[in-house]
Write a structure and sequence with these properties.
This protein has about 130 residues and is an alpha+beta fold. It has 2 helices and 8 strands; from the N terminus they run αββββαββββ.
Length: about 130
């Protein structure tokens, strides 16, 4: 599936590794401008990364003419991701309905340690008739 790059995701440096209806994988190189102090990935960057991956997963499941927007997101943080490391996101469906889709994105560090889990709800917006 070919998707146009999202401007904010491009600014962050999000890379989409693979897209399938039930699994989207992405990566994000931790740069200094994405960090807080001490040099670890900012919590908002985790959330924006996961939001992007969940949106891509939703788009991969939309019907012609539909679009999406995030209506809820919750993040649990478990470990810091240091400057220079690469965050990896794996997004899977918890629910794929006609009006909402719920996704769980697990973000891991380069060493495989779980860094965060994000659960988000995407609203399916029907095309105008």
């Amino acid at each position: 599936m070919q998707l146009d790059p999202l401007p904010f995701a491009k600014l962050m440096g999000v890379s989409i590794v693979s897209v399938a209806p039930d699994l989207v994988v992405g990566e994000l190189k931790v740069r200094e401008d994405l960090c807080t102090r001490p040099n670890v990935l900012h919590g908002g960057a985790y959330m924006a990364f996961a939001d992007t991956i969940g949106a891509v997963a939703t788009v991969a499941n939309l019907k012609e003419g539909e679009s999406t927007t995030t209506i809820e997101s919750k993040t649990n943080f478990f470990a810091a991701i240091p400057l220079g490391d690469t965050a990896r996101a794996e997004c899977t469906a918890l629910h794929k309905g006609r009006t909402t889709m719920v996704w769980q994105t697990k973000i891991t560090r380069g060493d495989g340690r779980l860094a965060a889990v994000v659960t988000q709800t995407q609203l399916v917006l029907k095309g105008r008739t």
